[in-house]
Amino acid sequence: MDLARLQEVIERTYGERDRARGVPSTVAWLAEEVGELAQAVRKGTHAQREHEFADVVAWVASLANQMDVDLAAAVERYADGCPRCAGSPCTCP
């Protein structure tokens, strides 16, 4: 699934409820999911890591929707490699 489609699905599925919850609460949920991902990376199975990566990406999409950010456009800054040095691989010090 591409990022634009993900944002559409997240908006259709959770958009109204997430906007009612608000940006601060969405950031808190995202932070919690990042913590769960960290735990899965350290001690989890591959399936648990996949699950937590999906949750983190879904919460990022929800937050982007609330902030009117097009994730596909936002990640374009990495399309040619490092956005700072333009290298691929990065040659930043």
TrEMBL record:
Coiled coil: none annotated. This is Pyrophosphohydrolase. Signal peptide: none annotated. It comes from the Bacteria. Residues 25-78 form the NTP pyrophosphohydrolase MazG-like domain. PANTHER family: NUCLEOTIDE PYROPHOSPHOHYDROLASE, REGULATORY PROTEIN FOR BETA-LACTAMASE.
